[in-house]
Amino acid sequence: MNDALMKNYEATFMEKVAVIHAPFEQAPYTVAMVDVPKHLSDEEKCEVAFRKTNTIEKAWWENEGVTKMFGGDACRSTSTGDMVLIGTKKYKCAFVGWELV
User: Fold this and answer.
1) Model pTM?
2) Which of 17, 48, 12, 11 is nearest to 30 (CA)?
3) What SS3 state is found at 96?
4) CA dist 17 to 2, 24, 87, 88, 98, Å?
5) Alpha carbon distance 60, 101 (integer Å)
C-alpha cells in the first residue's frame, strides 16, 4: 500500500529532469535523472537538480531522488557549463544562475 501511495504522490507532485554534463572537448551526456517538485519555477528546479548532483557528505548519485545514468564507479559534480533539461527546455548553468539554451 505504501508503495502505491508513494508512486501516486510522485506522479502527482514530482517530475523528472535530466542533468547533462558538458565536459570540455567532449559531447554532452546525461549523468542523472532527478526528481524535482512540479510546482517550482524552472530556475528552482535547476537549483534542486544542481544541489542533488553535487557531492557534499556522500557521493551525489546516492542522494534521494537521483537516478544514476552514467557508467562506471564515479562522476564529477555538476558545475558551470552543464545543463538541466526540463521537458523540452534546456538550461545551462552559468557563473551565476541559469541561461535558457
Assistant:
1) 0.89
2) 17
3) coil
4) 24, 22, 7, 10, 15
5) 25
Q: Compute the CA torsion angle 74, 78, 79, 85 (nearest 10 deg).
A: 140
- Segment 38-85, tens digit of pLDDT: 999 999 999 999 999 999 999 999 999 999 999 999 999 999 999 999
Query: Which H, E and C letters describe 6-73, residue by residue?
Result: HHHHHHHHEEEEEEEECCCCCCCEEEEEEEEECCCCHHHHHHHHHHHCCCCCCCHHHCCCEEECCCCC
The pLDDT of residue 60:
98
Residue partners of 41: CB distance under 8 A and separation at least 6 = none
The position carrying cell 552514467 is 70
